[in-house]
Amino acid sequence: MRTVLSLVLVVLAPSAAAQTDYGFRFVRIQFDSGQSESRGWGWGRGGAMWAHDYPVAEENFYTALKRTTSIQVEEPYLVLELSDDRIYEHPILYLCEPGYWQMTDEEVGRLREYFERGGFILFDDFRGDYEWYNLYEQMQRVLPSVEPRELTAVHPIWSIYYDVDPVAAPSLVSGYQGSRDADSYWGYFDEDGRLMALANRNQDIGDGWEYPNRDFDNASTVSFQMGINFVIYALTH
């Protein structure tokens, strides 16, 4: 992906002046879940599944990036569908509630091309076996020959900027909505070993971004650290 390469150079540039042409923009993926609108966006507040924590999560994550890194972020953050050609202009996509994510055949082809061009997608905010299997089945349509692999605590994504222990990290979803499973993190890799997609199973770091004042057990702090690590790793690998 041509844009990915130029953005990596921007992030690694030694001077702030070199960052003025283009910066990192947060892109959330909008999708049709086939679920009732009333089940989305806060489970009772109304809205769509893809919009959980939106737009406060984006606003707070931008603030964290500005305060703790030298990455230049671009306003505004975006909401795009996979059918939109603009996804190819951005190296990182974010999709929440993939347990209810459904794609058209066109979107399957678009996401496959996005990966082939060097893009990365982060799946967040899902829990339990049913939601995991739905994500797995959708990704099988995109990458039928690729099986997800768990990212252990020794993977460099956990230490590229912040030192994060994924085993000790608190889960923001376990313990409610019927999920008692521990959080785990699963990657989809291409044949060269590049991480194309990361799935935060039984985890919801977007919730930590939305509610930084509810920092029980440092959950929100760790969610920002994870998000920043994921962005930096995706931009540089």
Helix content: 25-40%
Assembly context of the chains = single chain
Q: Would you tell me the overall average pLDDT?
A: 86
Task: Tell me the series of helices and strands, N- to C-terminal.
Answer: HEHEEHEHEEEHH
* N/C terminus separation: 12 Å
> Major β-sheet, in short?
5 strands, mixed
Biggest sheet, spatial arrangement of strands: 3-4-7-6-5
Range of strand content: 5-15%
Could you characterize what this model shows?
The protein is 32% helix and 14% strand. Strands 3-4-7-6-5 form a 5-stranded mixed sheet. The chain has a two-stranded parallel sheet with strand order 1-2. With 237 residues, it is α/β, with parallel strands linked by helices.
Task: Give a quick summary of the entry.
The chain has 237 residues and is α/β, with parallel strands linked by helices.
Helices, strands, pairings?
Layout: H1 2-12, E1 27-29, H2 56-68, E2 78-80, E3 92-96, H3 105-116, E4 120-126, H4 128-142, E5 149-150, E6 184-189, E7 195-201, H5 205-210, H6 219-236
Parallel strand pairs: 1-2, 3-4, 4-7
Antiparallel strand pairs: 5-6, 6-7
Question: Which short descriptors sum up this protein?
Answer:
single chain, 237 residues, alpha/beta, two-stranded parallel sheet, disordered N terminus
